[in-house]
Protein 1
Amino acid sequence: MTLVVRSIDLGFGNTKFITSSANGKIDCSHFPSLAVLAPGEKGVVELVGKRKTVCVPVRGVWYEVGYDVEQAASSFKARPRHERYIETAEYMALTAGALRYMGCRTIDLLVVGLPVSEYLAKRKDLEKLLKKEPIPISGDEAVTIKEVLVVAQPHGALFDYLRQHGEETGIMETRNLVVDVGYRTFDWLTTEGLKVYSNMSFSVSLGVSQVLGTIARKIGIENGMAELSDLDGIDRALRTRKPLVVYQKHYDMKKFLGDIDAIADQAVGEMFTRIGKIYDIRNVVLVGGGASLYKRSVVKVFDRHKILQVADPLFANVRGFQYLGERHVRDKPEIFTSKAAPAADQSPAVGA
């Protein structure tokens, strides 16, 4: 029997998680980071069909989370986006949902992440939160987590790049910069090999949500509103490169390239100021769900560098978490004193 290692990258926009990892193949999945209050464990019966969601209990209250959760939400979708995110019931509901989809009832090591600016202050709190007691995932089931490893989110991307391209890239011996464009935060991590330079690593609240908010205000004003409430629709239009329809008007997202670049320029400029010198950075790795939106601004500053990217950048952090966790288990087996969970605990994810 082997130790069960799993990973969750719980972002403000999407909850990414590992469903299986075997023979060097890592399978990932994700759902929106949105938790909707539910009347009970069965949620709400739909008129047609059934949503791909699950209901999980947190502190005596039921929440619906999962792939089709947007169908359960009202037009106003509350998403906590602040520095005390890990203390919210929504955070635990999303964690419980990811654990339920994983299909494991015992996890020997769970790897999770935090924004760079919050890592040192909150990593111990997050470890305690997830290890404190079994996490309920239904009315009669819970997941026991034996050990928790918390890392700065972009560190996962660095390990994912290493996993995809190997040590011959020179990452282990040179200075690297990982730029992670998330939903709320724009994070960057500067390293020498895998060792982090904390004074040249940070995050600012200039992520994709700022872009969406700016576009929402412009479209809203054009249509006699203070702001268009459909941020998810704007996000979808940007990702699919299809027009957004508002009152039968078609909005081509190319119209807002100047606004996108203005916010991205601010984020990259803040990073450039804090890093100081960039001539000795050998590898610049760009990841995150908003990587394509910010690439133009990154290229403007790092115009003498080749910008490196990974396959499926949305999952870069969580794949790197998994790779790091498996290395940790392999290199430090003495930390794990109990036997691994039975192989049945590694069953396919529920409803994936």
Note: The radius of gyration is 20 Å.
Protein 2
Amino acid sequence: MSGEYLFISDCHLDASRPEVSATLVDFLEKRALTARYLYILGDLFEVWLGDDDPAPEHQHVIGLLRQLGQSTDIFFMAGNRDFLLGKTLADATNMTLLDEPHLLLLDNTRVVLVHGDILCTDDHDYQAFRSMVRAPEWQSTFLAKPLAERRQIAARMRSYSVDAMAQKSMQIMDVNSAAVQNCFRDNEASTIIHGHTHRPAIHAYDSNLSRIVLGDWGQEPSYLSWKPEQGFELHDPRID
């Protein structure tokens, strides 16, 4: 096993998209086995209603994560779809939960990890919603409801979200430049890694700062690798 780091996000696993699950299964069975660390930066699942959800459509992936976690250190940071993933599932899959932001030191380079939605500050409605559902009181109340009721609430929230997104410009849903600069400054970091926007790219800024955006998954994987002798390499079919 190498000292390689792998970073992924935005798989959005869902029963309606079996091809994505197949892509992730192949990645976990083959590519991830060669790495020392795997960081999942949110939205692994399209919907996660609580660790008591049997989620039969995800059991194969959950089993593979459990198996991979015996040899590869796996870390998970919540996204805007699976922020209710908790310690019960993390323990069952050998994953370590990360707070946001999370700092890494790679060859003396300070790297900050975020899911990415906290950088999209122009979307005021979403930020208000995020503040509500990330509050411990809201989560406790929601998780105390029967699973069937949680499914109904999640379906309504999803429908509202789809309608709201259809009325927003792409610019509003992308990162805010001031929020990005604040993230660099507040974390004293020279590299930001995030997902969420589904716009895979490596952005360079002044003062040798960089922002690496992980892509969403389809029939091919989207991931970032880092090795001491090679640095960062973004692997995505949409990148030349």
Note: Residues 62 and 86 are 14 Å apart (CA to CA).
Protein 3
Amino acid sequence: MTPHRPPFTLFAGVEISQGALSTLHHGEIDSAHTFGDPVEAARHFVSQGARWLHVADLDGYAGTGSNSTMVASIIRESRAHVQVAGGYTTAANVDAALAMGAARVVLDTEALDDPEAVAALVATYGDRVVVGISSEGKRVFAPRSGLHETDLEALLLQARDTKAHAYLITDVDSRGIRKSHERNALETVIRSVHGHAVSGGGVFRLGDLHALTELIPHGLDGAVIDAALYTGGFTFAEAVAALEERYDLFFWGPPIG
């Protein structure tokens, strides 16, 4: 069973490329700038109160490699629950991620090319499988898939049929750059599907986080904060503090056991 999460959860994002903490620049992996050891970063975020980590294998998502060894190290050494993403499209790699201790696995949008396979994973693993959906406006963003630039509403009909319990939603522009405004996909998914929605990225300032909280009454129950944590935007502790007046975060300590 997936560990209990409080009503609104901040996920500390750990993005990895070639074994290093990395970011995306204009929708591409920024190979010119790295930010240290992902395991150390994960440890640091947990020390600041992160109960959940969102660990994204950027190379796995791009189809250019794998950081599974590094991901396994974070899962093994972290005192937080770990949600993994990046390159998860098949039953085999979902099985492998859960077997190494991931609390949840986010399926790439392109996995919905085979909704029956997604439905089978949901039937097997329940809310340990999260459906990832990226869109540019009202069009699906999945460049390595036949779903790319198809209608978002049509994809959501397929997603609903999988009976997924949770969705990770990312709004991007035509180059795959995550947006902090015009959250069309997020608002559309919340309105259209019956499940829990988490916003993926696009939080560059604390004001972006405050704006997201306005969607909580409509079904948003979490947000992933990634690059801002290691490019100097703000710290995870500051993000938690920014929400303290709005929510009781008493349960946000690292999990026991």
Note: The chain is about 35% helix and 20% strand.
